[in-house]
Design a protein that fits this description.
There is one protein chain. The chain is of the alpha/beta class and 301 residues long. The chain has 2 domains: 3-64, Aspartate Aminotransferase, domain 1; 78-269, Type I PLP-dependent aspartate aminotransferase-like (Major domain) (Aspartate Aminotransferase, domain 2), CATH 3.40.640.10. Helices cover 32% and strands 17% of the residues. The chain has 9 helices and 12 strands. The chain has helices at 3-13, 46-49, 58-70, 81-94, 105-124, 143-148, 173-178, 203-216, 278-285, and strands at residues 25-29, 32-35, 40-42, 98-102, 130-134, 165-168, 184-189, 192-193, 199-200, 219-223, 247-250, 261-265. The strands form 3 sheets. Strands 4-12-11-10-7-5-6 form a 7-stranded mixed sheet, sandwiched between helices. A 3-stranded antiparallel sheet has the order 1-2-3, with no helix packed on it.
Length: 301
């Protein structure tokens, strides 16, 4: 199929929500990709920070193949070894306490926000759910993570947004203090702002923010969707800033092309997100009592 034919089909059947270059990629190997007409390109973006092992990596492809043959999906009502192995590796390599897995960077960042608000609600009650983020930040394209994003260019058309966010200029403690208040529960930031222009935060500023969060019992949330998994020289960028965040999000490069992400929590936050009993889900599927689990935590509908 020619590029012209493919482009015409795209415009006929796909929502035109992205402005694409006039190139149709057919296949790749390493950092090199080829278009449908055989022209060769070097991808300096790694698929926008996703393809951490490059294209067509044999080990990556074999691992996916073997796992798909073994178990393509199992719900989170059951245990399975692969996610435990990944969680253990992440905790041992970072000093964090436990992990929650998700499907994307935006979903992971929403998980951080939810954890921070629940931590504050559990400890202080209602009225303390505001998250401070930085101007020029980018945290995702869902309604909530767009609200967290400190760039007006991403905000138009989608009002009203989720409430509970205020923005401050990066590397400016006075600006952060000016938007603080008794309703704040967390500060969320990228240590290197990606969409904002690839802007690293000053180490001194990050240390001051971490100190302020500790003093006021705000959670320090670090968005490492673009900086995590070795892309700054350490497994996570926060390890170069000599801080231990309360929660860290990750996605993109951790799976090299599969939709995968999550958050890591420190010891203080490890027990914030707790499960509902499996019988809640069984009740959703059936109105009859779940007798097999000997459950006392539910009642008939």
């Amino acid at each position: 199929m020619s590029f012209t034919q493919l482009k015409e089909r795209d415009h006929s059947y796909v929502m035109q929500s992205y402005g694409r270059f006039d190139v149709a990629i057919d296949h790749g190997k390493g950092a090199t990709v080829w278009d449908v007409e055989g022209k060769e390109y070097i991808d300096f973006t790694s698929g926008i920070g996703v393809c951490s092992l490059g294209y067509g990596d044999e080990g990556w492809a074999s691992a996916i193949y073997e796992q798909a043959r073994t178990l393509g999906h199992i719900s989170n009502l059951f245990y399975s070894r692969p996610y435990v192995d990944v969680a253990e590796t992440l905790c041992k390599r970072t000093g964090m306490s436990n992990v929650f897995f998700a499907n994307s960077g935006a979903e992971s960042n929403e998980g951080m926000i939810k954890l921070a608000r629940k931590y504050s609600f559990d400890k202080y009650g209602k009225g303390r759910g505001t998250v401070i983020t930085l101007n020029k930040s980018f945290h995702g394209r869902t309604i909530t993570t767009l609200a967290a994003t400190g760039q007006d260019v991403f905000h138009n058309y989608f009002f009203p947004f989720t409430e509970g966010f205020r923005h401050a200029d990066a590397n400016d403690m006075d600006a952060l203090e000016s938007v603080a208040g008794h309703d704040v529960c967390a500060v969320m930031m990228e240590l290197v702002q990606g969409e904002g222009g690839v802007l690293p935060l000053d180490k001194e500023y990050v240390h001051k923010v971490a100190k302020l969060c500790a003093e006021r019992d705000w959670l320090l949330l670090i968005d490492e969707v673009q900086t995590g998994v070795g892309r700054t020289g350490s497994l996570f960028a926060f390890q170069q800033y000599d801080i231990q965040p309360d929660v860290v999000s990750f996605a993109k490069g951790i799976a090299g092309g599969l939709p995968f992400g999550g958050i890591m929590a420190n010891e203080k936050c490890a027990g914030v997100l707790i499960p509902r009993h499996p019988c809640h889900y069984l009740r959703w599927q059936s109105r009859r009592r779940c007798r097999g689990l000997r459950c006392t935590g539910h009642a008939e509908r």
